[in-house]
Design a protein that fits this description.
Helix 5 links the parallel strand 3 and strand 4. The protein has a 5-stranded mixed beta sheet, with helices on one face. A 5-stranded mixed beta sheet has the order 9-8-10-7-11. It has a two-stranded antiparallel sheet with strand order 1-2. Helix content is 36%, strand content 22%. The N and C termini lie far apart (64 Å). The chain is an alpha/beta fold and 297 residues long.
């Protein structure tokens, strides 16, 4: 036996409400003949005449009377399921989100973001994951909900994005370091020992390279995988760290900053997500919280 056409529920609901083929046809914007054929299909499906002639009108059979309320409720429930959800109450949410971001972003904006979530949505949990690479696969596959970073040629064109803030590179050294001066010369900067940040561990993939002159040559003492480790080493040694300013604001305690004595390119840190989450009300709300946290700093 084939499954019944669920579209017939809407027609049955209107027929039972109007008690007239002509009125039901007008309401559904069908011709009277098309509505009559639909009634015939309903009779065949239910095994009941449903509406029978009585004088010049139609009256409902006992089966039709019994079906009236449950059919109406079923149609209303179906419409509610398909209706777009425009707003939500964050206080009612119970959900866990995964966000991939650098350690610098988490240190700088994580506390404010978590405080916002705690006030607006106590039932929401946000887990921060490290960014071991620039692979967009986890975002595409739904393993994570959000990601922060600089949009590059390797970023999938299908992703949605929103700029969070503009950033630039600065130099950081410990207090009392020979470069802890108001103005650092290019020669002094190049001759110093540097700690680089690279996800791969190779100098050619250093995080700051895309924003520095192509012919720059530094004396690299060591390479680490994140900004927090780089600044920790700079704080406890004579190493120089070149890192994004605003991105690492929460990590700069105990360090002196200086303007780089060379031309650098500013860049934009953006929030990225997959299009399937674009219209999700809870996801939209979370994105607004991230923007609020960044704007508060």
């Amino acid at each position: 036996m084939s499954a019944p056409d669920l579209n017939l529920l809407v027609a049955l609901d209107v027929l039972l409400a109007e008690g007239s083929v002509a009125k039901a046809a007008r309401r559904l914007r069908l011709s009277p003949s098309a509505m009559s054929r639909t009634l015939a299909r309903l009779r065949e499906t239910t095994g009941d005449p449903l509406l029978v002639r009585a004088g010049r009108g139609l009256v409902a059979t006992p089966r039709a009377i019994a079906l009236r309320e449950p059919v109406q409720q079923a149609v209303e429930d179906a419409l509610e399921l398909l209706r777009p959800i425009d707003t939500i109450d964050p206080a009612d949410l119970s959900r866990t989100f995964l966000m991939r971001a650098s350690d610098g972003f988490v240190e700088s904006f994580g506390p404010t973001l978590l405080a916002i979530l705690a006030v607006q949505a106590p039932g929401v949990h946000l887990h921060f994951l490290q960014k071991p690479d620039k692979d967009s696969g986890p975002l595409r596959d739904g393993q994570i909900d959000l990601e922060t970073g600089v949009i590059e040629n390797t970023t999938g064109p299908e992703f949605r994005s929103q700029a969070l803030f503009e950033d630039r590179l600065i130099g950081l050294v410990r207090h009392g370091h020979p470069l802890d001066t108001r103005k650092v010369s290019l020669r002094a900067y190049l001759d110093a020992q540097h700690v680089l940040v690279s996800r791969t561990g190779f100098e050619e993939a250093a995080a700051d390279l895309p924003f520095l002159p192509a012919d720059l040559t530094r004396r690299v003492s060591t390479i680490v995988g994140g900004f927090a480790a780089a600044l920790s080493l700079a704080r406890a040694s004579d190493l120089v760290a070149t890192v994004p300013d605003r991105h690492t604001r929460g990590l700069q305690s105990g360090l002196s900053t200086f303007e780089l004595p060379l031309s650098t390119k500013p860049f934009t840190v953006s929030l990225l997500w997959h299009p399937r989450m674009d219209a999700d009300p809870a996801h939209r709300w979370l994105r607004s919280c991230v923007r609020q946290a960044v704007s508060a700093q």
